Amino acid sequence: MKFFEFEKSTDFCANKQTREKIKKEVLNQLSCPLKKPILIYGSNGVGKTYFVQMLAEELNLELFQINGYNLRTRKAILNAKQIASQQSLFGVKKLIFIDDAEAIPGRLAAKTKTEIESEKEDKKKVGKRKIKEVKLKNPQKEIEELIKDSKYPIIFSTDDISAKFVKMLKKMSSKFEFKKPSTEELTNFLSGVCSGNNIECEKKALNFIARICDGDVRCALIELNVSSYLTAGAIKYEDISKDNFRDAASDIKKCLKIIFRSKSIDASREVMSKCNEDKGTFLEWVRENIPYEYSKKTDVKKAYEMISNADLFLGRIKATYWRYLIYASVLLSAGVCSAKKEKYDFHSNEFRFPSKIATFARMKFHSNNDAEIIEEFREHCHLSKKKIKDNMAVYRYLYNH
After folding, report:
1. Do residues 140 and 106 touch, judged by C-beta distance below 8 A?
2. I want to staple 9 with a disulfide (CB 3.0 to 4.6 A). Which of 54, 141, 216, 341 is the partner?
């Protein structure tokens, strides 16, 4: 049973005013020679991608959907530029949609074996005549040129507004935020879906699904589909098995508690799939709390080796291969958990906030007083007075910038 089929994009869940504004912006750009990119941002599962698909259908536009993860090869970038600059074969106007904009890499990936072989074959066909190779810049610069040369509206979608490419994009685009629907909005939306598909469902059951999915529309629709299948189309609150629902996103401190204070590798590995925190930030939390949670030197050493390797993988993700994210997640969770030989009996009551993040947050306070600088760094970075004095020039620069 498909719950994703609606007549118009305006029938979608929540963000009605935002969707109307985007629709007006697209219509204005279709008749205007100057194109300005449209940036849609919001948490995962709120309906950004599906809204754009329905909008293209409603306005009778030919949709070209490109994923940011794919814009890392020469061929993909050249195809995108060609799509944006050429007219449609069907005589209709286009809408170019670049999803997961945060994944657009900083540089082009190396040529694959198949690409090298196809280039060799092309050279053999041409003979002695040299093929002029197109020189490309990094993907981000190429996207900037694509925006300037495009004849059609371009919509970017992202879950991470703080990503490097998205920060640049924010300055030159019209920005629209897709907010999470409230529990009441999501419950009413699910009720409409049930009535449209002739499914009997108690409001209490729908309210439970809406609460457990925490504003994730995609998750709510999937869970509703599963429940209707298990209950043969008549969903009652008593019949819903609570074990069938995935847990809401765990608090970061709950995740740390499982990693540091249990011996279950499976439970600690599962933690990362439930935590919506950025992996770099999560790494800082783990790094900060290792010496306070583990007392044995061998355990501390192994734990730091795990997060060191995780940091290595996180640093290589955007430049090369996004699958490294899995390795980094396993090392941060199961790796740190397995670093201890046995479970510790005593633990501190509260996890410490990362001193590195706290220091950066306090950099807005400028000072030329050495004593004040030393005191600030001692308080938040747990550094010795001698170490700060030996590197005073570095810490003064950090403090004032």
Report:
1. yes
2. 54
> Helix, strand or coil for residue 155?
strand
Q: What is the pLDDT of residues 219-258, one digit of tens each?
A: 888 788 877 777 776 788 776 755 445 544 456 777 888 8
The pLDDT of residue 364 = 44
User: CA–CA separation, 277 vs 155, rounded Å?
Assistant: 26
Q: Could you tell me the CA-to-CA distances from 313 to 107, 227, 318, 319, 326 in Å, in that order?
A: 17, 39, 10, 11, 9
Instruction: Report the pLDDT averaged over residues 361-369.
Output: 49
Measure the CA dihedral 200/204/208/214, to 10°: 100
- What's the rounded Cα separation, in Å, for the pair 216 and 181? 8
CB 179 within 8 A of CB 14: yes
Contact 256, 287 (CB under 8 A): no
Q: How far apart are CA 310 and CA 281, in angstroms?
A: 12
Tens-place pLDDT, residues 67-115: 887 887 777 888 888 888 887 666 678 899 999 888 887 776 656 666 6
Q: Which residues contact 70 (CB under 8 A, 6 or more apart)?
A: 76
360 pLDDT exceeds 80? no
Q: For residue 343, with 0-12 CB atoms within 10 Å meaning exposed, 13-18 middle and 19 or more buried, which class applies? A: exposed
On the question of a common fold for 9-177 and 183-244, the answer reads: no
At position 118, the amino acid (one-letter code) is S
Tracing tokens 């043969």 back to the chain, one arrives at 232
Q: Per CATH, is 9-177 categorized as 3.40.50.300?
A: yes
- Distances in whole angstroms, Cα of residue 9 to Cα of each of 6, 22, 50, 96, 98: 7, 11, 8, 17, 18
Say whether domain 183-244 belongs to CATH 1.10.8.60.
Answer: yes
- pLDDT at position 2 is 47
What is the residue-wise DSSP string for 331-342? IIIIIHHHTSSS
Residues in the chain: 401
Q: Which residue has the higher pLDDT, 124 or 37?
A: 37
- 98: tokens are 């670049």
- Residue ranges covered by each domain of the chain: 9-177, 183-244, 252-338, 355-400
- Tens of pLDDT, residues 273-312: 767 777 888 888 898 889 888 888 899 999 999 999 988 8
